Automatic annotation (TrEMBL):
Keywords: DNA-binding, Transcription, Transcription regulation. PROSITE patterns: HTH_DEOR_1, HTH_DEOR_2. Transmembrane segments: none annotated. It comes from the Bacteria. Pfam families: DeoRC (PF00455), HTH_DeoR (PF08220). This is HTH deoR-type domain-containing protein. InterPro entries: Carb_Metab_HTH_regulators (IPR050313), DeoR-like_C (IPR014036), DeoR_HTH (IPR001034), NagB/RpiA_transferase-like (IPR037171), Tscrpt_reg_HTH_DeoR_CS (IPR018356), WH-like_DNA-bd_sf (IPR036388), WH_DNA-bd_sf (IPR036390). One of its GO terms (molecular function) is DNA binding. It comes from Aerococcus sanguinicola. Residues 3-58 form the HTH deoR-type domain.
Length: 254
């Protein structure tokens, strides 16, 4: 297979799957991981993808994330930044608190860290992996929102989960996103947007937890204006102009 043909086929593969690991692409196209990384560099230079640690995300000509990213791509991405953000966000949690933990790999790290520091918490989540991790703490009350599970992310993704969530009240909602800016916080589907919006409505305190590359992405649906949040925790590589704009809003950037 010629290099350009392989490049075109990798682009088609990513367009269809929306994200993939280097290992996955190497096996799919029968070339080394070194070759795949070079091909991804080429596609990124054309603005078609965003490289992440261990893989790539399809953006396309309009630079838009349309669907959820595969967990095996997200899991290996930005681990040091996520670990630091988790340590910092712990200051917002107290023994006995009730928390809504949004789905995502950063909150999966957070609930594991909570087990080290807090003997008693109530955890409400739509993320099966978070719920299972929380049940390892014998004194945690764990509420997994009902609904159809996504085979990809192992999270509830229908409006049954939204209806159940609205019957609760929590001290703090710790939220994720696919992208954020001064204009708002974004996700990729109506179901996810409805669930995230409802979580903000039931919380006394609202925290956005997002690594810096999400400040440079675009996604389909805004689930909340940035002003709905009390604090933003992000990493040092976040877009500085974007953070400057956000700093004029009534939100603390950490």
């Amino acid at each position: 297979m010629l290099a350009q043909e392989r490049l075109d086929r990798i682009a088609d593969y990513l367009k269809l799957s929306q994200s993939a690991t280097v290992k996955e692409l190497s096996q799919e196209f029968g070339v080394s991981e070194v070759t795949i990384r070079k091909d991804l560099n080429e596609l990124e230079s054309k603005g078609l993808i965003e490289k992440v640690f261990g893989g790539a995300i399809w953006l396309g000509p309009d630079q838009l994330i349309r669907t959820e990213i595969k967990p095996d791509v997200k899991q290996d991405t930005r681990q040091e930044d996520k670990a630091r953000l988790v340590e910092e966000v712990l200051e917002n949690i107290s023994l006995g608190d009730s928390l809504f933990l949004d789905n995502g790999t950063t909150n999966r790290l957070l609930v594991a860290k909570c087990r080290q520091y807090y003997d008693v918490l109530t955890i409400i989540t739509c993320d099966l992996t978070i719920a299972l991790e929380a049940t390892q703490a014998p004194n945690y009350r764990v509420i997994l929102l009902a609904g159809e599970l996504s085979n990809l992310s192992k999270t509830s993704r229908d409006f049954a989960a939204v209806d159940r969530l609205r019957s609760y009240r929590v001290d703090t909602a710790i939220m994720g996103c696919d992208s954020f800016s001064k204009e708002g916080v974004y996700t990729t589907s109506n179901e996810k947007a409805a669930l995230k919006s409802s979580a903000l409505e039931i919380a006394n305190h609202r925290i956005l937890l997002a690594t810096g590359e999400k400040s440079r992405r675009r996604s389909l649906l805004r689930y909340a204006p940035m002003t709905d949040f009390d604090k933003l925790y992000t990493s040092q590589d976040a877009d500085l102009d974007g953070l400057h704009d956000i700093s004029h809003l009534e939100i603390k950037i950490c």
